[in-house]
């Protein structure tokens, strides 16, 4: 997955309701999410220690 460039100040902090009502519902229905902020990963093809380096979106947030 190519790195995503996010504008300064962007934070991904959805509520539980937003995660279920928007992201999970769209995923279950096979609909594309406009911003690929949550990568889809086949965990059976990755070593646990490789995940942060391969699937991390850089941020200046603490």
Overall description:
This protein is mainly α and 62 residues long. The protein contains two helices and no strands. The longest helix is centred in the middle third of the chain and has 13 residues, at 16-28.
Low-confidence blocks of residues: none
Mean pLDDT: 78
Largest sheet: none
| Terminal-residue CA separation | 23 Å
SS strand fraction: under 5%
Category by helix and strand content: mainly alpha
- The helicity comes to 25-40%
**How many β-strands, per DSSP?**
0
Shape: globular
- State Rg: 13 Å
> Which series of helices and strands comes N to C?
HH
Number of helices: 2
Key features?
about 25% helix, globular, mainly alpha, 2 helices, about 0% strand, single chain, about 60 residues
